[in-house]
User: Which sequence fits this backbone?
């Protein structure tokens, strides 16, 4: 059982890495090729940077900068730091890849096009939380080459409170709009439910409750994160703004005979950001109190 689910995760990780939206810098060959990819918001509605002022897109460079492929959704978490999923920046052996391979398009609710490449941020450091030792540590902090001005994006704050099954949460990303379908060029968001069903532990031995490293969600009505949403934000509203509960990690269909891994009756797992807040603060070299949002009593 454990081995099986591990194998399935590796397969779905491969699927996620294969999100396929590529910008070719040689305009004679092609531009903005969008072919089928592996992950995205299912049943989403279009949203904007008004709601998600921290939203970012992670690209990988190929062929010495000849092309840039969209791989995951990410969030600005400090003026010069990004949070996303570890599997987005890891190789097949779960080892972190070189920072020089990655670029970020920050503060835009639409995927980058050729003219945006000049504004891409580069990555100087990748800090991992131990993904190679456990899938539950599917989170990384990326340090950017320079601070992001507040006119471009505002860092997200972390939701520090207990996660209950009735907490209203939302997930957002640029992933596929159905399993195996094309990614969305526009940021989509959808309401989902936190779950504490026994099915969460049945599908993931790393999950015991929503107070640990992972938050579980089971989709009844089809709303879900899908391929390309990896690293994207699960948010709750606090003091009138969206704060980070978790980041998209992986999901699968609860029916072992089905290979449609996004949508109705599928289980998905999110890395609970607050669980990692002290580690995040230490790699960013800040006090963790500056990273969390406290409920405003007034
Ligand atoms: C992306 O799509 C292109 C063209 O369809 C294909 O050749 C390439 O292998 C795909 N890349 C990935 C990572 O899936
Ligand atoms: C981009 O996609 C088109 C088909 O949609 C294909 O003809 C073209 O070869 C692709 N370009 C590259 C560089 O893969
Ligand atoms: C767990 O999953 C099974 C199979 O999909 C389903 O029949 C059952 O209702 C689920 N249980 C809960 C508590 O959601
Ligand atoms: C959550 O599960 C962990 C084991 O992973 C356990 O130590 C902890 O007490 C549980 N917390 C709650 C609130 O049930
Ligand atoms: C969330 O739970 C409510 C109440 O059980 C249900 O009506 C709704 O369809 C659920 N949403 C999702 C995304 O499963
Ligand atoms: C998972 O989601 C897909 C897409 O909505 C759906 O076709 C499939 O039936 C779901 N899985 C199960 C077990 O219902």
Assistant:
């Amino acid at each position: 059982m454990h081995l099986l689910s591990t194998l399935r995760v590796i397969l779905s990780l491969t699927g996620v890495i294969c999100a396929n939206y590529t910008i070719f810098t040689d305009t004679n060959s092609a531009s903005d090729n969008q072919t089928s990819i592996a992950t995205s918001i299912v049943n989403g509605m279009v949203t904007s940077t008004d709601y998600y002022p921290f939203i970012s897109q992670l690209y990988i460079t190929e062929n010495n900068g000849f092309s840039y492929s969209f791989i995951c959704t990410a969030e600005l978490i400090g003026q010069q730091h990004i949070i996303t999923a570890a599997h987005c920046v890891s190789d097949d052996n779960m080892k972190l890849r070189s920072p020089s391979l990655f670029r970020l398009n920050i503060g835009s609710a639409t995927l980058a096009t050729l003219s945006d490449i000049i504004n891409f941020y580069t990555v100087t450091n990748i800090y991992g939380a131990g993904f190679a030792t456990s899938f539950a540590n599917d989170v990384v902090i990326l340090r950017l080459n320079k601070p992001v001005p507040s006119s471009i994006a505002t860092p997200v704050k972390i939701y520090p409170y207990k996660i209950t099954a009735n907490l209203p949460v939302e997930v957002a990303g640029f992933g596929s709009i159905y399993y195996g379908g094309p990614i969305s060029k526009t940021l989509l968001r959808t309401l989902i439910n936190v779950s504490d069903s026994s099915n969460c532990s049945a599908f993931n031995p790393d999950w015991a409750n929503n107070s640990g490293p992972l938050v579980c969600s089971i989709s009844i009505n089809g709303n879900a994160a899908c391929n390309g949403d990896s690293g994207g934000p699960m948010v709750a509203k606090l003091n009138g703004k969206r704060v980070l509960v978790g980041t998209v990690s992986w999901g699968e269909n609860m029916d072992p005979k089905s290979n449609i891994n996004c949508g109705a009756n599928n289980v998905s797992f999110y890395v609970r950001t607050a669980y990692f807040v002290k580690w995040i603060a230490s790699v960013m070299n800040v006090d963790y109190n500056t990273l969390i949002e406290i409920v405003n009593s007034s």
